[in-house]
Amino acid sequence: MAAAESLAKLSIDGDGFPENLRKNLSVLSPQQVELAKMLIEMEQSHLFKQWPEPGVEDDEKRAFFDQIERLNSSYPGGLASYIRTARELLADSKAGKNPFDGFTPSVPSGEVLTFGDDNFVQYEEAGVREARKAAFVLVAGGLGERLGYNGIKVALPSESVAGTCFLQYYIESILALQDASCRLVQGNCPAEIPLVIMTSDDTHSRTVDLLESNAYFGMKPTQVKLLKQEKVACLIDNDAHLALEPNNKYRIQTKPHGHGDVHSLLYSSGLLSKWHDAGLRWVLFFQDTNGLLFKGIPASLGVSATKWYHVNSLAVPRKAKEAIGGITRLTHKDGRTMVINVEYNQLDPLLRATGHPDGDVNSETGYSPFPGNINQLIFELGPYMGELTRTKGSIKEFVNPKYKDSSKTAFKSSTRLECMMQDYPKTLPPSARVGFTAMDTWLAYAPVKNNPEDAAKVPKGNPYHSATSGEMAIYRANSLILRKAGVKVGDPVLDTFNEQEVEVWPRIVWKPRWAITFAEVKSKVRGNNTVTDRSTLAIKGRDIVLEDLSLDGALLVDAVDGAEVKVSGSVRNKGWVVEKVNHKDTSVPEEVRIRGFKFNKIEQLEKSFGEAGKFELKP
Ligand code: UTP
Q: 222 vs 190, 192, 196, 572, CA distance in Å?
């Protein structure tokens, strides 16, 4: 018997309540009775099928409605609206309806940047100028199932020379931008750039612990605001009947709703109008594990400000069929247009259906003509607030049920609605200015998403997106940036860690306050500097200048603000040797073994300058 039929057979008496719920109404508060009515109206009477007589498990019954109340209040429009949308989307999914039916894709316009040229440097300066009017929003509620790390992802070291975790890197970068922005406008600057972190039940308390046990990594605690997203109800069938947990008849099964929740949370938090009143102009959204992100932020923000983009997506060149979405202009038969991320598995069929028989293929440049979306977004605050006031922060959702068979009548396991933050432009009017800023992948994008086993299975030539590749990408980017600034940096060697072949560049890291833009790097690198391929270099202070340095080994320099240190001369030592670690070796800490290597710190020159003044470090 179909689920809907069996549910219809439940006993419903005259007042609409099934018998065993009606008997229990006296146990509930008036508000809970209202929620019960809503559930019955939404044909959810199966939830009460196993409820015993009043007097038995009454606390559990009230707790059931406490959860219903949370699910109801945390979803824009309430649970009834969730169920109605779910029915529509499940019907579309069953009918195999293409969400892009009637749309024709084309390549949108945007700004393509070349790292280090005059245009790039000008955009960086414009971006730094605007940064004091920005707020940052980190979405960090994801489970990270693909990575399988036991901790929260933002606590993972982004690199292991200085051991800076992702959250520290993000906060220090925001603080560096804040300082740089204020220096540019000289004096007229009360800026404390706000940081919002969206968490979930899976990440919230550990994110708070990480911040508190590290004194917020130097940020004022009042600058940081955590918003916790709630999960949404799971659904058992195409009629959007809510799923109970298998071992608890008083608990609705829930799953994450996706990072699109960030918009409704920001809307309901009241932060947007507070920021607006404080004169802020930009909101920058970013994700939990991209150790290169801030290398592209100043220039992209400059593009937003110069081109008046309401929505600006950071993008990288995309290989055809690569598993990242393409930023696409879609024009409907009825004249509607939007610039939106089209997921890679939808781009190919969409192209084929609209007169491109080869589908998702590279152009003569060797890349897909559609820029690859890396989901770092810059919104102009005013238009964003206007749109959210209209939509109440709700975002177009989708559903992805795994059906038991081709009849699409039953699911393998419960499903739920999901939403993605990059779908925000879907409801914008055609007058909205939606663009992108594209730059090289090596500069801006190296997420840590995959565990070692899955990364090792990635087809050759495609990015691993693992802890190994994420860390090596930081050394490569820093080496290439120093090269562009005139430093002779040794060539990389190829090596394999956790069965992933990567380029190993000299292990160069610097604190964001040393340099947050290319212009800053150039101003702190003078004369003829050389760093050999086996070297490790960590620059931790703001006012450190490299001048005629020849490094072959390991050098770590720290300095307080106001300590101006010139580093020069020849530094030669046995250095730090990269040693392999097997990811199955549980005697090694998890964050080390998932990257597949560690440093054997044989010999280094390490110097710290703790007082203001002028110094020279010349061995
Ligand atoms: P990912 O695609 O990396 O997903 O999310 P995930 O859930 O973290 O990891 P998997 O898929 O289980 O392996 C992209 C970004 O969105 C955040 C993540 O924390 C990450 O920064 N996110 C994802 C949320 O904040 N909430 C969600 O419900 C899902």
A: 14, 9, 11, 45
Whether pTM exceeds 0.90: yes
Q: Whose CA is nearest to atom 25 of ligand 1?
A: 141
- Per DSSP, 102 falls in state T
Q: At which of 22, 43, 74 does a domain end?
A: 74
**Using CA positions, which residue lies closest to atom 23 of ligand 1?**
142
Which tokens belong to 323? 């598993």
Give 494-532 pLDDT, tens digit per residue: 999 999 999 999 999 999 999 999 999 999 999 999 999
Can you tell me the distance from the alpha carbon of 319 to that of 324, in angstroms, rounded to the nearest whole number? 9
Closest CA to 236 of 349, 90, 116: 90
Please give all residues whose beta carbon lies within 6 A of any atom in ligand 1, as ranges: 139-147, 198, 200, 256-259, 287-288, 449
Provide the token pair at 615.
């110094």
Question: What's the average model confidence in pLDDT over 151-167?
Answer: 98
Are the CB atoms for 565 and 609 separated by under 8 Å? yes
Q: In angstroms, what is the span from residue 85 Cα to ligand 1's centroid?
A: 23
> Residue 84 domain-assigned?
no
Distance (angstroms) between ligand 1 centre and the Cα of 143 equals 6
Look at residues 494, 608, 482 and name the one whose alpha carbon lies nearest to residue 555.
Answer: 608
417, 551: one domain: no
Q: Ligand 1, residues 74, 136, 138, 146: which to mutate, most atoms within 8 A of Cβ?
A: 146
Average pLDDT, integer, range 330-357: 92
Rounded CA separation 5/429 (Å): 42
Determine, yes or no, domain membership for 534.
yes
Query: 263 near 388, Cβ under 8 Å?
Result: yes
**Of 75, 154, 288, 376, best ligand 1 pocket probe by most atoms within 8 Å of the beta carbon:** 288
Q: State which residues form the domain around 156.
A: 93-449
